[in-house]
Amino acid sequence: MTLLDARRGIVATFAELATETGVTIDGEAAVRRLGPPLEDEIARWFPADEVARRAARYRELYAVHAVPVSVAMPHATEAVEAVRSAGGRVVVVTAKSEPLARASLEHIGITADHVAGWLFAETKGAAIEEHGVDVFVGDHVGDVHGARAGGAASVAVPTGPCPPDDLTAAGADVVLPDLAAFPAWLADEVLRRRLDTLSARLGELGSVLVAFSGGADSAFLLAAAARELGPDAVVAATAVSASLPAAELDAARRFATGLGVRHLFPATDEMSHEGYRANSSSRCYFCKSELVDTLAPLAVELGLAHVVTGTNADDARAGFRPGIGAAASRGARTPLLDAGLTKAQVRAASRAWGLPTWDKPAAACLASRIAYGVRVSPARLARVERAETALRVATAAAGLHIRDLRVRDLGDVARIEVDADHVAGLVARPDLVSVVVESGFAHAEVDPRGFRSGSMNELLPAPGRQTEPA
């Protein structure tokens, strides 16, 4: 009764067994006792020397009369999807026979990474431990005992025969009303654990120089470092170059000041690298190399043990990222990635901490707006910045409250990307589009597909496509 509701089929199976044997069996009473091994129930109706044989026959009948009419418990599919979304595996440990458990799961459309059958109460513990189960969800006090025996957190739902008080008394770590509440609980639990891991990781690093762009990730990392290590063991460094929008500097300065953290503004010169100016798909390698090469000696000078960046777990899963590789090869650490924190979790934790950056739109460097193969220059970067600033001012004045906005430099043509729900409104206002042309472009057009992070990669040949923030 956690993932599977087989009550209708169980009653039908017992009725068939009763017909075959001539023994009266109360199937409705049996389903009110679900949880323990089948043999326990069979023993209520047959002599001890017949239990094994009758149980075997019951299972044969179950495959015919119960599996086809079994249904998923409400929200079971969503609960399983929540586990997978969190990066977890689905392990089913049950008193049901393993073949019938697999057949039942297949029938209701739930796929498990592993199924361990024939286990109840404390005997579930060995399978739970063997498969590295961190959280075990069940509806019976036996599931609670199994979770504790296997070293897993016990999450109980009173959808079976055991009321909430009994589940709590058995030692459940949490009792949810049903599986509908599980995805939110799991999200909070995973975030809590990852934040604990982040704190431990920062504690191990001892002191850090944070590569602080002012964006949501590096802002959260800076706040976490200040919390764990204390402001005196943390310094923020915001690299100043033509690639950084000027508007980001003041916001970054206010944020660091609010944390009581020392804030430095070292200059970087990525423009001195031909590979950066050439603007191939590996452009970010040269930018990040320049950043870490600038910050590493600064950290030594300040007596700080490590340079850390705001790379998160989503960044590492996004495909080939030359910037991440460049920073790693130079010894920069990635505490958010090490803790498994995703972008969404960074934003959720930032909001919980009251950080103003929790909902800040992505703001990658200005070079990410320039189409690959079009050479990067200070003039081009400045033109993009002028165009985006002018367009933001104009759209705000016109009552278009746009969150994500990019002006993509395709050469002489500017391609404007805004939130999809604002595309039509912007297309209908050529006077607003014209401010981009006035910023130095020969022509400007609105992308009908709307804002897409990394959309410049769409212009690359498919085999060479990379994923970079934009």
Automatic annotation (TrEMBL):
CDD domains: LarE-like. InterPro entries: HAD-like_sf, HAD_sf, LarE, Ni-pincer_cofactor_biosynth, PGP-like_dom2, Rossmann-like_a/b/a_fold. NCBIfam families: ATP-dependent sacrificial sulfur transferase LarE. It holds the Pfam family HAD. One of its GO terms (molecular function) is sulfurtransferase activity. PANTHER family: EXSB FAMILY PROTEIN, NAD_GMP SYNTHASE DOMAIN-CONTAINING PROTEIN. This is TIGR00268 family protein. SUPFAM superfamilies: Adenine nucleotide alpha hydrolases-like, HAD-like.
